[in-house]
Design a protein that fits this description.
alpha/beta; about 15% strand; 13 helices; binds nicotinamide-adenine-dinucleotide; single chain; disordered N terminus; 12 strands; about 425 residues; 5-stranded mixed sheet
């Protein structure tokens, strides 16, 4: 086992492993179970030949990692980004196992990624990458095997192509092979907002615990994609004051708060740069936004944003992790020392996978729920899971992150013992 000192702070796989190790030790997990759960079940690398619009033939590299099938089919997003690495996909796959277990939904964990930059590709090129990637994986995905979903750089349209390609291979329409699909193709009402809604629900719980009220709670959201923009919008609507927003182009901070529907219109309808949003305030870098005054900071962009170099500058009382792995493992200690109430990624952003689970259930039932029903069930899952993690933290004298891992590892270990090891 690598020691903390020997670790590379920015390797997300090592960060994931560090938390797993700490939680496993606290649980007194036996060595065999520890080893079984530490390693992925399967890692697949695919080489994806695609003819670009220019006529040039390019080969893209894609991965799919199955971390665990102990509690059910694998579940996890597909990321299209230029900096995708196998280590990153591995880390994200293991986080999916723990995330599904924290909220107690019957899935294991997986993740996929393709090294490409969708912003530099045409729609047709992205479609061809998606279809060939799916075709290469068609034996390994499926409603009972592995159910992908969107992540950075992929969206409802990408999922529609995955669903169509898979369906062509198995020769019948199989909506339950992916989640995060358009509603007209078996998607779930409420899925688009689900991760953001889940973030708001756990923030509601956290502010109640700290004796704060929504109206005097300032929120900073880093990342203005699916997760960040939806969290900002729902929290704004619920009465929180969103004082900081940022995307990859930069951030804006304004104590007076932003009109989030207008900011969404600016970025998504008018297609203008977020830092130019004409609402006053101070322009900052996307990273700097995290360290401005607010009660809640929601990093909802990407990994490794809060590090040993900058964690001491956080001013928030609550750190609610919308992104996966926004805080490096060595930075945890600094955040803890500052007494910040952390809602760890595997709990905070689990609203997305929870409604993905509802989507999979609805597809398999062929019976679709109203949005109010989806939201009510999501609320029940998020609040119950939040309370369980907090109780675990108090009972075992650990921080919220380690408590969430302990709850999750315990559930997977229990299921694994029941199943036994297939010879
Ligand atoms: P997205 O591609 O829709 O949006 C990403 C946003 O982050 C964009 O606004 C982008 O400009 C911004 N961004 C990227 N790099 C940045 C940087 N270095 N600094 C500041 N902003 C930056 O992606 P998403 O689906 O919203 O996912 C965001 C994070 O949430 C990822 O870590 C993802 O794994 C995680 N997550 C997503 C879901 C989901 O349902 N989409 C669920 C759980 C977790």
């Amino acid at each position: 086992m690598a020691t903390q000192a020997a670790r590379n702070e920015f390797n997300v796989y090592e960060s994931a492993e560090a938390r797993f190790e700490t939680a496993a030790k606290k649980l007194g997990l036996e060595e065999g179970l520890y080893r079984y759960m530490k390693y992925p079940n399967k890692e697949i690398t695919v080489y994806i030949p695609v003819t670009l619009d220019s006529g040039h033939l390019e080969v893209f590299i894609g991965y799919r990692v199955h971390h665990s099938i102990v509690r059910g089919p694998c579940k996890g997003g597909i990321r299209f980004a230029p900096d995708v690495t196998l280590d990153e996909v591995r880390a994200l796959a293991s986080w999916m196992t723990w995330k599904c277990a924290v909220v107690n939904i019957p899935f294991g964990g997986a993740k996929g990624g393709v090294i490409c930059d969708p912003s530099k590709l045409s729609q047709g090129e992205v479609e061809r990458i998606t279809r060939r990637y799916t075709a290469e994986l068609s034996e390994w995905i499926g409603p009972e095997r592995d159910v992908p979903a969107p992540d950075i750089g992929t969206n409802e349209q990408t999922m529609a192509w995955v669903m169509d390609t898979y369906s062509m291979h198995v020769r019948h329409t199989t909506t339950a092979v992916v989640t995060g699909k358009p509603i007209d193709l078996g998607g779930s009402a409420g899925r688009r907002e689900a991760t953001g809604r889940g973030l708001m629900l756990v923030c509601d719980r956290a502010i109640a615990k700290l004796g704060l009220k929504r109206e005097n709670t300032r929120v900073i959201v880093q990342g203005f994609g699916n997760v960040g923009s939806m969290a900002a919008m729902l929290m704004h609507r619920a009465g929180y004051k969103i004082v900081g927003i940022a995307d990859i182009h930069g951030g804006l901070y304004n104590e007076a708060g932003f009109d989030i529907p207008k900011a969404i219109d600016w970025v998504y309808t008018q297609k203008k740069p977020l830092p130019e949003f004409p609402a006053g305030g101070t322009k900052l870098t996307a990273r700097e936004i995290l360290f401005q005054p607010a009660e809640i900071v929601v990093p909802a962009a990407t990994e490794n944003q809060i590090t040993t170099e900058n964690a001491h500058r956080l001013q928030a009382r609550i750190l609610c992790e919308g992104a996966n792995g926004p805080t490096t493992a060595p930075a945890d200690e600094i955040v803890d020392r500052k007494g910040i109430f952390v809602i760890p990624d595997i709990l905070a952003n689990a609203g997305g996978v929870t409604v993905s689970y509802f989507e999979w259930v609805q597809d398999r039932q062929g019976f679709f729920w109203r949005e109010s029903e989806v939201n009510a069930r999501l609320q029940d899952v998020m609040e119950h899971s939040f309370d369980e993690v907090l109780q675990y933290a108090e009972a075992h004298g650990v921080n919220n992150r380690i408590a969430a891992y302990m709850v999750a590892i315990n559930r997977v270990a229990f299921a694994l013992k029941l199943r036994g090891i297939y010879a």
